[in-house]
Amino acid sequence: MEFVKVANTSQVAESVLLPVEAKGRKLLLIKVDGTYYAAQRRCPHMGFNLCRGAVVGHSVVCPLHKASFDLETGAVNRDPRLLFINMKAKADLETYPVRVDAGEIFVGI
């Protein structure tokens, strides 16, 4: 695994989703309660951009079908739902390890 610089700590505001790229992978980066998390940017259900979603606690919520994923583990907290139609998430969200060193943020790929 290689750790790739994706941002500086000054670029990441608390609970604000930031789109980043590492080795050609489109990721989201976020800081929640002082801890940085990185995950795939596309919702594993239908591929919608999660950076347009919401952060609720330590989870990211897809703006399209309201599926919710734990930012630390990627586990599905809530399956997708559209109006009264319940669906099943296709997979967990892929997450990546994050390191911070001297104000720089690195993601393990």
Automatic annotation (TrEMBL):
What keywords would UniProt list here?
2Fe-2S, Iron, Iron-sulfur, Metal-binding
Q: Which domain of life is it from?
A: Bacteria
What InterPro entries does the annotation carry? Rieske_2Fe-2S (IPR017941), Rieske_2Fe-2S_sf (IPR036922)
What is the protein name stated in its UniProt record? Rieske (2Fe-2S) protein
Domain Rieske span(s) in chain numbering: 4-107
